[in-house]
Design goal:
The structure holds two protein chains of two kinds. Chain A is mainly alpha-helical. Chain A is built from ten helices and two strands, in the order ααααββαααααα. Chain A has a two-stranded antiparallel ribbon. Chain A is flat and about 80 Å long. Chain B is mainly alpha-helical. In chain B, β1 and β2 form a beta hairpin. Classes of the chains: A mainly alpha, B mainly alpha.
């Protein structure tokens, strides 16, 4: 990066450190922080959408849909989320390839599961065998996002269903008395009011989501945990920048990153809670009204 | 090999007894059920140990956080913030690297004697320690919250009767704190058991392939390339464990609430607001 970094063996002290921290590998390490943020920003709305669907399904009047919704919301309670992470990443991958196989190679005679192997026809490989590394990595990231969205969607569905049930019954009854259809009641009365009830749960969920992001490492993504392990491991004199086992310090860095992210989120969510309480028929909303008056 | 033979060969495999070689080919459903069940022993060990020791430490922490003295309160607040604000996965790595790079096998205590620390790098000690530290923080926050919601009237009544100090804590605050915090504590216990599955994916090596339930499930998923059998088996075991936990904690909850009229009793509800 800097000119004096040309021969790292000759420099010492601060200049050594500045050169060390700007190697291309370190740049990839810094970039992986953006990967984590990207995951958070994409997953949160996706999980919310899954959760909304799940909550609606769990409240449906049609029994099979309701059962599906209930199973979806119940599944995260009894089973560790990491089981789902490990499961969905392979299951989604195989599921997509199986679908592609059915579409692209309808007259393929060999069975897909041969003993211990999973074999689809070459045309059904996703991503294609000759795809670039970038495509492979993006695909892996996409699968990870989908996995996170499914699992956290189930958590969100729990929260949203609770929030929908918490909206005072009188509000719905009044809407019905004014002749609003069930759909109108849902859209104009229930949904606008449920957020204040959902926010404590959703805030908590956001914090949990932040703390779940290092699990990306287990899904085979080159995330911050991967790079911290790679870069921190001891480097012999063969390397340009030899050093001992620094993984402890790298992970301390990650710890600080997560603590900061948590703290900032807590402050932000506190403000949001205040705003959403405005004009609500809850104690928080009442306090705000009295303060203003 | 019949299924009964498999049970005899593998049911204690996770502890290092019985057949040494894991099944490689012709992996049957029975193999998977038995080995994953064997791995559950580790999940139970980690969970029970961290839960019981963590309970004691957490009560101390919660009282420290509620303390009026700044020098007692601040360390407890920081401890709770650090362990609740960062991922358990990172904490596992940190503890492991701390043990292996800073302690390095033994510690010199003021030149008097050397304390061997190599054993800490094993999962049974190091991971259990991490889980203990982690769950203490979460539990302390729950109990602190409960301590803060002890009804004012109860404390005033204690004052009026001249109950102070130790008596006031053990006879008034402690039972109420437990009663109010118990539903949330139940959740914490469940999620602690879930968190034990992370151990062998986070730096702590599985010595001679002695791992927990998820370790074996992952092994089978890699070997058979079929995730649709081993992971649902883990799920099955964990659902049973969760239901058992809810049952046991429910009994304790009933006992804690036995003096209340039925409509005031706090029910245990698995509310997602309470998850960590």
């Amino acid at each position: 990066m800097f000119e004096f970094c040309a021969d790292p063996k000759t420099i010492e002290g601060l200049s050594w450190l500045s050169c060390y921290l700007t190697t291309p590998k370190h740049m990839e390490f810094y970039f992986s922080f953006l990967t984590v943020m990207a995951l958070l920003l994409v997953t949160a709305p996706a999980a919310l959408a899954f959760g909304f669907g799940g909550a609606m399904a769990a409240r449906s009047h049609i029994a099979p849909i309701r059962w599906l919704g209930k199973i979806y919301t119940a599944m995260v309670r009894g089973v560790p989320d990491i089981v789902f992470f490990l499961f969905f990443v392979i299951a989604l991958d195989q599921g997509i390839e199986w679908l592609m196989h059915q579409v692209r190679c309808p007259d393929w005679s060999e069975p897909i599961r041969q003993g211990l192997e999973f074999r689809v026809c070459p045309a059904a490989k996703v991503p294609p065998n000759n795809a670039s590394l970038f495509v492979h990595q993006s695909y892996a990231f996409l699968l990870a996002v989908l996995t996170f969205a499914i699992v956290f969607g189930a958590f969100a569905a729990n929260v949203l269903k609770g929030a929908m049930d918490a909206v005072p019954r009188a509000q719905i009854e009044t809407a019905e008395a004014y002749g609003l259809s069930p759909r109108q009641t849902f859209r104009r009365i229930l949904v606008p009011q449920m957020w204040t009830y959902a926010l404590p749960g959703l805030s908590n969920l956001w914090l949990i989501l932040i703390k779940a992001t290092p699990l990306l490492f287990l899904l085979g993504i080159q995330d911050i945990v991967y790079w911290a392990r790679e870069l921190g491991g001891s480097k012999s004199a063969r390397f340009d920048y030899p050093h001992g086992d620094w993984r402890l310090y790298y992970f301390l860095g990650l710890l600080v990153f997560y603590l900061a992210l948590t703290r900032v989120s807590e402050i932000g969510l506190g403000r949001l809670t205040r705003r959403l309480s405005h004009g609500q028929a809850t104690r928080a909303g009442e306090t705000l009204r009295k303060d203003a008056a | 090999m019949t299924c009964w033979d498999t049970v005899q060969a593998y049911w204690l495999r996770s502890l290092g007894f019985g057949e040494n070689a894991l099944p490689l080919t012709n992996i049957s459903l029975c193999d998977q059920f038995v080995l994953i069940g064997s791995g559950m022993l580790w999940n139970l060990y980690f969970g029970l140990l961290a839960l019981s020791l963590g309970f004691v430490f957490a009560v101390g922490l919660a009282m420290a956080k509620a303390s009026r003295h700044k020098w007692i309160r601040k360390p407890a607040e920081w401890y709770i913030f650090i362990f609740r604000g960062s991922p358990l996965f990172i904490q596992f790595f940190l503890v492991y690297f701390f043990i292996t790079t800073v302690l390095r096998g033994s510690v010199d205590v003021f030149g008097l004697f050397t304390l061997p620390t190599a054993w800490l790098a094993n999962a049974w000690a190091g991971a259990a320690l991490t889980l203990f530290l982690n769950t203490s923080a979460y539990t302390a926050e729950i109990f602190y919250g409960a301590l803060m919601t002890v009804p004012k009237g109860d404390l005033e009544a204690a004052d009026a009767y001249g109950i102070t100090g130790r008596d006031r804590f053990f006879r008034i605050e402690w039972p109420t704190m437990l009663r109010l915090g118990w539903p949330a504590y139940t959740n914490e216990a469940i999620f602690l058991f879930h968190a034990t599955t992370l151990v062998f994916f986070s730096g702590f090596p599985a010595f001679q392939q002695r791992g927990d339930a998820l370790y074996y499930a992952n092994y089978f998923a890699d070997k058979t390339f079929n995730p649709f059998i081993p992971y649902p088996i883990v799920a099955f075991y964990f659902i049973i464990l969760t239901l058992t936990l809810i049952g046991i904690f429910g009994l304790v909850n009933n006992r804690l609430n036995r003096h209340l009229p039925s409509h005031q009793k706090k029910r245990i509800r698995l509310r997602p607001q309470l998850i960590r």
